[in-house]
Automatic annotation (TrEMBL):
CDD domains: C2_SRC2_like. Residues 1-113 form the C2 domain. PANTHER family: C2 DOMAIN-CONTAINING PROTEIN, INGRESSION PROTEIN FIC1. This is C2 domain-containing protein.
């Protein structure tokens, strides 16, 4: 067994009470992986400074989960919603979930699963709000998937241009123009005004006439 990537997207929350006396709350969430010291176990969302008690983050993060510890139910995921303040951040509510609970309740692992959990006070245990997030487990990292070798394809046969196809050399690689043969003189040269500039092009004498209106 190896490690399984667990992608978490902390979406939003609803906080019941304002922990500030007079100002709007600036909320963020810290997510921790508990029970495995072999991988980075702490992530933090951005701070929502505008939404107050209804913060919106939509912040994604990924943890590598030890598959054996997951199946033994030894890993937990902790969410802590905090309020950013000048004199020290204040905890709003906390939530701890066994990762095996998320793993067992996942229906289709090809798509994220959306859930909502109550966050509680860390001291009194009373409900302080609701946290909304999604999660998705990936495949085990120790499983090798051999890529099939690319099949050799025969080289395509070059396509020769039609003998009667006209050749018009404009000298302009980034523009495409169509010419009227009414402006070609006896020497095979053409002078046309293009955006105020004198435009010259050489035409193969054997090329057929192209009866197209240039729009000059």
């Amino acid at each position: 067994m190896g490690h399984i990537p667990l992608e978490i997207t902390v979406k939003s929350a609803q906080v019941f009470n304002n922990v500030n006396l007079f100002s709007k709350m600036h909320l963020y969430t810290i997510v921790r992986l508990l029970g495995d010291s072999s991988t980075p176990k702490k992530r933090k969302t951005t701070i929502d400074e505008h939404s107050g008690s209804h913060p919106f983050w939509w912040f994604s993060m990924t943890f590598l989960v030890d598959e054996s510890k997951l199946l033994q139910n030894n890993l937990n995921l902790s969410f802590q919603v905090k309020c950013s303040r000048n004199l020290g951040d204040k905890s709003v509510g906390i939530l701890t979930i066994p990762i095996k609970e998320l793993y067992d309740s996942t229906g289709n692992r090809n798509y994220p699963t959306n859930v909502a959990y109550t966050i509680n006070s860390s001291s009194s245990g009373k409900p302080r709000g609701v946290l909304y997030f999604s999660y998705m487990f990936g495949g085990s990292e120790n499983k090798s998937h051999a890529m099939p070798s690319a099949a050799r394809l025969p080289s395509p046969n070059p396509i020769s241009p039609a003998p009667s196809a006209p050749y018009i050399s404009t000298g302009y690689d980034d523009e495409e123009y169509v010419f009227s043969t009414n402006n070609i003189d006896s020497s095979g040269q053409c002078t046309l005004p293009v955006n105020g500039c004198s435009f010259r092009s050489s035409v193969v004498p054997s090329a057929p006439y192209l009866p197209v209106d240039y729009g000059c």
